[in-house]
């Protein structure tokens, strides 16, 4: 498959797509590598993960530049993403020696629990954040003693392939981490149906996530799902309006809106609605959209022509209030766009592009009602100076990751995942490790 630079439409390279037999061969190799990796002394497994993290760090600029070309991410973001893989590997490198079981009091013996690794884990990664999403599955899965096969998105395989090379250079044993580029319905589907893949981690659209979940049900396969979002950025009249408006573009137009956490609905208390729009306008117009390799760029292109068409279709029945800039010429560019009269699809579906709807609300109860009026529940922000309200609204909004007076919500050491149809299970943070193990309870009788 040809790999395209979305900023120029140039062909970068081509990458072979694996057939089902090749996916099977990779799974078989991961299966063979599993017992030795599981039985590697915890300290040695930790050391290898740290070496892998250091290899990523040593290659950080190269990885970032690769992502700029393959995905159109701005260089600043791409450096953060490569650094995130390094950090998440370091974080879970602290885990192998701390994977503690319990000793539970019983009469007539000893009762202990073990956290056993599952075996082969299949990661299905989307095109929007190829590096971090790979790292979020990879690091805890390997730390817990599993082996991993990873399918990158067809559009963005290059950094995943480089990560596999770095793992090998760092001494991660053969078969412990393999990347299998291929089509979702072929390679991804094989991870779902192959009996030797004991867990699937899928990040992508809710529609495909549901198919993956149904497929995994056949074998009661372990599953983590990170799906779409339609997150609300709720601005109350008592908030620091200047700060809320200045940061709102970064909360939705980051990665050109191709972000499951994008705060794509800005809900503004009616009394400050017009003032907020006045403040938002320069922030949107001044956003630097252009060559993602340029240090000054804040937003790059969309991933493909097809995706740009899909994003544009959401404006068919909407009234645009503010339109930012975008370069002419080749590349899948789309200007940051603010809509004040959105159509039904724009209000309910995940656009996954730089389009945001600004919607007025009456009072706190109305804000919560609108925020929750969606099948999704991933993320969101609340802007207010009233700490009681901040806590009330945080508890009432049905979403897995909220931030108060901030537009960001992802940290590798805190749990991440969705309510409702935004997902199942949690990645990152201290507990994600256990999602890659099964608990075994053993009773040892001391009776003579
Ligand atoms: P998909 O859900 O189709 O793709 C995500 C991953 O799943 C890719 O690796 C894809 O492979 C793979 N896949 C596709 N079909 C199957 C299958 N039947 N079995 C197993 N794996 C499969 O997302 P799209 O790329 O089509 O994007 C469509 C929309 O989904 C976006 O516009 C956005 O709204 C949403 N999305 C949300 C994401 C999020 O982070 N929440 C991430 C990506 C998309 P392949 O690359 O070969 O198609």
Automatic annotation (TrEMBL):
The keyword Oxidoreductase applies. It comes from the Bacteria. Residues 1-442 form the Aldehyde dehydrogenase domain. InterPro entries: Ald_DH/histidinol_DH, Ald_DH_C, Ald_DH_CS_CYS, Ald_DH_CS_GLU, Ald_DH_N, Aldehyde_DH_dom. Keywords: Oxidoreductase. The active site is at 226. This is Acyl-CoA reductase-like NAD-dependent aldehyde dehydrogenase. It comes from Amycolatopsis thermoflava. The keyword Nucleotide-binding does not apply. One of its GO terms (molecular function) is oxidoreductase activity, acting on the aldehyde or oxo group of donors, NAD or NADP as acceptor.
């Amino acid at each position: 498959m040809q790999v395209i630079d979305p900023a120029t439409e140039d062909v970068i390279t081509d990458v072979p797509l694996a057939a089902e037999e090749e996916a099977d061969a990779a799974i078989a190799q991961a299966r063979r590598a599993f017992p030795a990796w599981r039985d590697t002394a915890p300290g040695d497994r930790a050391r290898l993960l740290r070496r892998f993290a250091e290899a990523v760090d040593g290659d950080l600029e190269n990885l970032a530049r690769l992502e700029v070309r393959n995905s159109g991410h701005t260089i600043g973001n791409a450096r953060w993403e490569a650094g995130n893989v390094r950090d998440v590997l370091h974080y879970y490198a602290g885990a192998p020696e701390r994977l503690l079981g319990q000793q539970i009091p019983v009469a007539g013996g000893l009762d202990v629990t073990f956290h056993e690794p599952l075996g082969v884990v299949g990661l299905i990664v989307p095109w929007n954040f190829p590096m971090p999403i790979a790292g979020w599955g990879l690091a805890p899965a390997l730390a817990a003693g599993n082996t991993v096969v990873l399918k990158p998105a067809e559009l963005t395989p290059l950094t995943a392939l480089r990560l596999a090379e770095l793992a090998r250079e760092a001494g991660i044993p053969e078969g412990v981490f393999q990347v299998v580029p291929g089509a979702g319905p072929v390679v991804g589907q094989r991870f779902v149906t192959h009996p030797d893949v004991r867990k699937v981690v899928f990040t992508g659209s809710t529609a495909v996530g549901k198919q993956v979940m149904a497929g995994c049900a056949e074998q009661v396969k372990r599953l983590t799902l990170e799906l779409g979002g339609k997150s609300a950025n709720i601005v109350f009249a008592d908030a620091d309006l200047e700060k809320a408006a200045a940061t709102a573009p970064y909360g939705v137009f980051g990665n050109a809106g191709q972000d499951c956490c994008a705060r794509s609905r800005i809900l503004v208390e009616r009394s400050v609605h017009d003032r907020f729009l006045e403040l938002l306008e320069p922030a949107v117009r001044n956003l630097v959209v252009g060559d993602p390799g340029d240090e000054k760029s804040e937003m790059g292109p969309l991933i493909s022509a097809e995706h740009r068409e899909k994003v544009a279709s959401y404006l068919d029945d909407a009234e645009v209030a503010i339109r930012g800039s975008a370069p002419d010429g080749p590349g899948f560019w789309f200007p940051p766009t603010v809509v004040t009269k959105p159509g039904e699809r724009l209000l309910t579906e995940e656009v996954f592009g730089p389009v945001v709807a600004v919607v007025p609300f009456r009072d706190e109860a109305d804000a919560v009602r609108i925020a929750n009026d969606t099948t999704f529940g991933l993320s969101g922000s609340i802007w207010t100076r009233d700490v009681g309200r901040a806590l009330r609204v945080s508890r009432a909004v049905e979403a897995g990751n909220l931030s108060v007076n901030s537009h960001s919500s992802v940290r590798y050491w805190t749990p991440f995942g969705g309510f409702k149809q935004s997902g199942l299970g949690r990645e990152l943070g201290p507990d994600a490790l256990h999602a890659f193990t099964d608990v075994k309870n053993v009773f040892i009788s001391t009776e003579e």
